Amino acid sequence: MTAPAALTAASDARSVEILDLVRHAFAEKGFDGASMQDLARAAGMSVGNFYRYFPSKAAIVEGLIHRDLSEIEATFAAVMGSPDPLAVLRATLAERVNEDCAADGQIWAEITAAALRKPEIGAVAQKMEDEIAGYMMAVFARITGLSLAEAHIRFRAQATLIVMLVKAAAMQPAQEPETRSNLSALILRTIDRTLDEVVASALKG
Amino acid sequence: MTAPAALTAASDARSVEILDLVRHAFAEKGFDGASMQDLARAAGMSVGNFYRYFPSKAAIVEGLIHRDLSEIEATFAAVMGSPDPLAVLRATLAERVNEDCAADGQIWAEITAAALRKPEIGAVAQKMEDEIAGYMMAVFARITGLSLAEAHIRFRAQATLIVMLVKAAAMQPAQEPETRSNLSALILRTIDRTLDEVVASALKG
DNA sequence: ATGTGCTGAATGAACGTTCATTCTCGGAAT
DNA sequence: ATTCCGAGAATGAACGTTCATTCAGCACAT
User: Fold this and answer.
1) What angle do CA A73, A79, A80 make, to 5 degrees?
2) Higher model confidence: residue A90 or residue A2?
3) From CA A35, how far away is CA A29, in angstroms rounded?
4) Could you tell me which residues of chain A have a Cβ less than 8 Å from any Cβ in chain B?
5) For the whole prediction, is pTM greater than 0.70?
């Protein structure tokens, strides 16, 4: 039983490598715009071999989403593991909003559009956003001392808004540095206010 | 000279009709996903004739953007023309955030993605967002009594954030009605707070 | 007859996907 | 030490489809 397991593990590791190589090409040309030939070339292999790792184009998008999700999962694990989760959450969000990652924005824009268009991708993307909101609400529960269920009832909108803001910030096109930094600052202030509201609402209610 | 002008005018009117017919098909299949055959069928005409109105796919996207922009222009004209611009602006934004127009969200997602990918579309989209922000800043100048130039310096980020929030709200996927209305309410509260900040900042400084 | 507006079949390129084939190479047999 | 084997990695040509774009020809008004 070790042989097949090892094989799958090796293949999975390779898939992750391929996803990293392919990501840029996908972001640049879009879901329908990037051909399998393009993607195979980006991965440094032939078309046929490429199909051994991803049986379809949609599978690549799903792979990219899962990869992003597992990164975010790790981030939230760090947040939850820290002694001051709220501060770490704030810092993490600040970093994400301030970093000028055009590539991430491009691919998120593609995924957002594809999610609204193709139901199979929409389902995966929806699940991802739900899980992120779930992590965020878990942090809220931890901060406020409320139960997870209570936090889900009270703070779902806040969690969704924050995710939405981070996504929207990443999808913003390139601008003059000053304009951009003013906007980033305002977005961060908005996020901070929303977090303040979560804390305050818990103290009151 | 009247003949060509009339022809162009008639052709422009027809183009607008076609854009309305085509919009839905474009939103459903995306920029690369929608074929010229699809679009011609949606417009109720032959492929060849369709090319007489739009010589390329990018031209259609530009047309859609211009059409949206002129609608928004009219909306802002109404805002500026009213005796209480701030109240009308608030009401207009509330309406836009609450209306569940999945079609608009889909096409905005497509345009956002295409804008990040194709520079020619990005330029047009950027110009559109700049103009919208410009209208909003004009409203801010009117409300606060500041000069247009001063409003541009002070409130560009606020204007951009509000546009961003409205766009993001439209691009949100379908959800349970309660979740959705909670989110809409929070987004509106965030917009209102941003507008409050504009007013307050003007009183202070 | 002449001009005009429109059609939809034709064209060649490019698409996603498949598959017959070749290459690579670690270890079993000699 | 040499040969051979087989399994999985990799190839790229081929398939049927669909794409954007063009244009010869039709109907109809003048």
Assistant:
1) 90
2) A90
3) 9
4) 28-33, 102, 105-106, 109-110, 112-117, 122, 125-126, 156-158, 160-161, 164-165, 167-169, 171-173, 179, 182-183, 185-187, 190, 193-194
5) yes
